Here is the input.
Amino acid sequence: MTDLEFKRQKYLIDDVSYIIDSLKDNNQYDADDGAAALGINAATWPLFGQVWPTSVAMAMNIYKLELAGKRVLEIGCGIGLCSIVLHQMGIDITASDYHPRVREFLERNVLGNGLPPIKYQTGNWDEENPELGKFDVMIGSDILYQPDHARLVSRFIDRHSSDDVQVVIGDPGRANRAKFTSRMIGLGYRHRFEKLDQLLQDGNCFKGRISHYRRHDRS
Here is the structure.
């Protein structure tokens, strides 16, 4: 990571400070890490390395969930702020992403916050990963930004859902949100949402929603 430029920021989440290293800007790019073979071009390559407002808003609200004793997966974790917050809380969290550089960035920030190693798995939404298994809770922040993500994410979630699963998705107002909800309802999930008008620590206001999907045993 020596050729990339970083910035370091502090986030106060539920009275706990987290120091997060992220990419300095969206001009950072490593052409030699194999991302191009995965369909990740120079324009989209640095997106994983930013702390997006939706992730901060999700992290600020995640303590409301009942997660004790449950197996939790973060989908498309990117820089991994929500996973790190849950890890610090002692939750059984597995972070996952498609980008080949996420793991090293995640581990850098986990260690930088004095935490033990975190569980991580590759999360390619369009391919099977039997090592992932099934989860009781799945979370994701601003993951519906491409036209095909409604289909891919809903199928991925259904493959890795336990019989009684809760899915929580933070979204800033992407056009794909309605399509994703329609697909989740078609798969047997109930849906509710809460609107967010959240003041973030940088002074900006996040306006979006957190959508909740729930599926009970269908056997």
Notes: Residues 130 and 160 are 9 Å apart (CA to CA). Residues 102-112 form the longest helix (11 residues).
